[in-house]
Amino acid sequence: MIRILIFLIIIGAQSLLAQNFQGTAIYSTSRKLDFKLDSTSVAKGMEEQMRAMLRKQFQKDFKLSFSSKESIYKEEEKLDKPSGNSNFQIMVVDGSSSSILYKNIDEKRYASKKEIYGKTFLVKDKLEKEDWELVNETKNIGNYTCYKAIRKESRTELTITNDGEPKEVEEEITITAWYTPEIPVSNGPENYWGLPGLILEVNDGSQFILCKKIVLNPKEKVTITEPKKGKLVNGKKFEEIMRKKTQEMSERYNNRRNNGENIEIKIGG
After folding, report:
1. Which residues of 1-12 are buried (b: 16+ CB within 10 A; e: fewer)?
2. 211 C-beta neighbours (distance < 10 Å), count
3. Per-residue model confidence (pLDDT) at position 58
4. The whole model's pTM is what?
5. Dihedral sign of CA atoms 53, 201, 238, 69 in order
6. Selection from 87-96, 109-118, 221-230 with the highest mean pLDDT
7. Please, are residues 102 and 112 in contact by the beta-carbon 8 Å criterion?
8. Three-state SS at 123
9. Contact (CB, 8 A) for 197 and 179
10. Which of 53, 85, 237, 264: CA 20 to 30 A from 225?
11. Domain chopping of the chain, boundaries
12. How far apart are CA 71 and CA 263, in angstroms?
C-alpha cells in the first residue's frame, strides 16, 4: 500500500519537474565519537574536554543546491572562536571539509573538489547504485511527511589504536534514511541518492545528518556549476591517498608523544 501511495505522489509531482524545479536545503551534521585515551597521555579530566572539542569540530552545516537532474553540496562557511587552551590542539582531516560535491543524477556520476594539506584533488567517478529497502514507516520532519528507507553497507575504517598504530576495521553497518516524495528529486546530502524523493535525514550509526531548512523555487535562480580544478583521481585512488595521510599522521602523533611534546590528535575521514 505504501509503495502505491508513493507512486501516486510522484506522478502528481511531475508537473513540478517540468517547470525546472529547483531548491536549496541546509543540513546539520554531527558525529558519534568512540575513543579512549590512556591515562599516561592526558591529565585527569582532559579526555572529556577533548571529546567536547571533537564534537564541535564535526558539528557543521552544509548547503545542497539542487535541480531535478543535478546538485552541489558544500559546507557553509562560519567563523569559529579560537580555543584558549594551549596544552593541546585538535586537527581534523575530514573528507567532507573544504570540499565541493557535484552530483549528476541523470548521468549517474559525481565530481568532488577536495583540499587536503594544501593540495587540491578533483575526484571523478560514477554514482554507485544504492539498493534501498523501502520501509512501511513514516514521520514528519518539519512540514514534510517522510518515509523510511534502509540499506546495509560494508565499510573499512582506518582507526588509531591507543598505542598509536593504525588498524583497519571492516564492519557491516545499517544506513537509515528518511525521504519526502513531496520534493520529487532523487537526491540528498553527501553521496546519498536514489530514493523517490529528497532525503532529509541520514543516520549510519556514527554520523547523523538532518535537514533543518528548505527553500523551493527561490526567486534567485539556483546556480549549479561542476568543479573543474584539481589533480584528477578516481574514488579508489583518493581513498588510498587519505589512507596514506592517516598513516603519516599516526607516525607524527607517536613522535610527539614519545618526545613528551604537546598532545595533538588527528582523525582521518
Report:
1. eeeeebeebeee
2. 25
3. 67
4. 0.76
5. negative
6. 221-230
7. yes
8. strand
9. yes
10. 237
11. 2-268
12. 40
> Which residue has 575526484 as its cell numbers?
123
Partners of residue 91 on adjacent β-strands: 266
Rounded CA-CA distance 122/213 in Å is 29
Place of cell 571523478: 124
* pLDDT tens, residue by residue, 156-179: 665 555 555 556 677 889 999 999
Q: What are phi and psi of 257, to 5 degrees?
A: -70, -40
Is the alpha carbon torsion for 193, 197, 201, 204 positive or negative? Answer: negative
Strand-pairing partners, residue 75, are 62
Q: Are 205 and 176 in contact (CB under 8 A)?
A: no
Q: What angle is formed at CA 104 by the lines to CA 103 and CA 108, rounded to 5 degrees?
A: 105
Q: Grid coordinates representing 84?
A: 584558549
- In this structure, what C-alpha cell is assigned to residue 7? 507512486
Q: Per residue in 237-257, pLDDT tens?
A: 998 888 887 777 666 656 655
Helices vs. strands in the chain: H and E counts, helices first: 4, 14
The SS3 assignment for 8 reads helix
pLDDT 10s digits, 44-101: 566 666 666 666 666 789 999 999 999 999 998 765 554 545 454 444 555 555 689 9
**62 CB neighbour count, 10 Å cutoff:** 20
